[in-house]
Amino acid sequence: MRNITNQDVGEDADAWVDWWRKNRSKSQEEWIADGFRQRGFDIAVPPTAVQTPILLAVLGNSETNKLTAIPNEMKYNAFRCLRDSGFETVAFALSNRTLSAEIGQGLLEYAKRERLSPSGNGIGILPFGRKKDKWEGMLMPPTKYRVTANVLVFGLPLLGVALLACSYRKKKESVESGPRGLTQ
Fold it and tell me: What's the angle, vertex CA 77, arms to CA 71 and CA 83, rounded to 5?
């Protein structure tokens, strides 16, 4: 729930139910923006270009003091906001040659998270994010060829299993009926 909402109302299920009653009319983007605001970051969701350094600073925060450390759900949502708004790490780094250590750390953290959770896998994509076709970039042609490929990949092994089962059954029947040519 923390990652989905960018909120932390504790471990108590009743607290989450109360939170849901108060916030169910809001969109996920509003929940995430509210979570940033509660921690003192005025971030629009989707973020503006001016807010990119703030989100990178959130990602790059390595504070260990519980009061000043950025919680993981906030880092996760900072990453998603950047990723789903089309953020380009190289372009940002090249256009901002003098970066603070925290923003530089945020770029590294962003790159690490992007490798682990690319937008292409479709997991955690925010509503404003670009939804990629899972076949984009693949050499697999349109639907009729996908069906043929699936039949070959899944159908042939299933046919092999069926043939083995039939062969086993016939062999078992011939053993049970006794040797051929002998009458009982």
Answer: 140
